[in-house]
Specification:
6-stranded mixed sheet; 6 strands; Rossmann fold; about 40% helix; VapC45 PIN like domain-containing protein; about 140 residues; alpha/beta
Length: about 140
């Protein structure tokens, strides 16, 4: 599995999780958009390019893909990506709280990714043993 963090999340989150996943044979890569594309690359541009150049990915974003909603959603659908969108509550949280919560959610995300093949899912801020990802 390969995970791609879009530009609305700090590169450090992707890089820290890449280091934490270093010994997990199921995780081939965890990268940030700026590791492969210029930081100002628009979603409808990087989405098809990502898949064309690097194969299937699981995308994490805090973006609701609503700026150009139809074009972005269509690009995601055509690419067959699985996208995990962090719920709006994530936006108002401090940096370290977001980092800690992302690590807490990570096993759930990777398990879900191993069983999914496309779609957009909301990642709630709240996490319990019964927490679930919700299809968008």
């Amino acid at each position: 599995m390969k995970f791609f963090f879009d530009n609305n999340l700090p590169p450090a989150f992707a890089h820290a999780l890449a280091a934490l996943c270093d010994r997990d044979p199921d995780i081939a890569a965890v990268i940030h958009l700026r590791d492969r594309f210029p930081g100002d690359t628009k979603d409808p541009v990087w989405i098809p390019e990502l898949v064309k150049e690097f194969g299937p990915w699981y995308v994490l974003s805090i973006d609701k893909f609503k700026k150009d909603h139809r074009a972005e959603r269509e690009a995601i659908r055509r690419a067959g990506l699985t996208v995990y969108v962090l719920d709006s509550q994530w936006s108002g949280q401090p940096y370290w709280s977001k980092a800690a919560r992302l690590v807490l959610w990570w096993p759930t995300l990777t398990k879900h990714a191993s069983l999914s093949s496309g779609g957009v899912y909301r990642v709630p801020w709240r996490f319990t043993n019964q927490s679930r990802l919700e299809a968008c």
